[in-house]
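Query form — protein Luciferase domain-containing protein

QUESTION: What is the three-dimensional structure of this chain?
INPUT:
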Amino acid sequence: MSGAVPVAMPERPGPRPSTTPTNPHTQLDQQPSDDRPRQRLIGQLADLPDVVWAASTISVPGAQALTLPRGPHRGPPDAFMIDTEFAHLHPAPDHSLHLVLPSAAAEAAIDAGWAEQHPIARLGLISPGAVMVYAPRDAHEADIAAGLVRASYAYATGSTRSLRAKT
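ANSWER: The structure tokens for Luciferase domain-containing protein are given below.
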């Protein structure tokens, strides 16, 4: 996947999970039965250059944020939720994540059933590409989620180099 995310995505099996309609934007069902998908997801993101993992400054307590150091080599302002935070993973029992994608990629993820637009983005208060990616329920879904986070990273860094997820 290159800096602009693939627009064709496989369909997510099953119905969409239930979520809250406002902040905190939380996934209410269809979480994984154990922590293995989340650990696989985190493992695939460990090698993103220059990413600093920190407590989220915009999400619920316990959320892990992916941030970039301050500097001149960054993507557009719409690639971030706040400051240099481009994605965050919600703690258990939620396990969903929020991230920012370019508009076409966000639409593709939503259309394929992997994500939904953040309710605050629908109001125009944050980037229109801010989405909730549903909690991965298995290894395959963790791979899809990792690809979306890598696409968010590419958007945040203005990168065009390949960012394929490890398999």
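ADDITIONAL NOTE: Residues 1-5, 161-167 have pLDDT under 50 and may be disordered.
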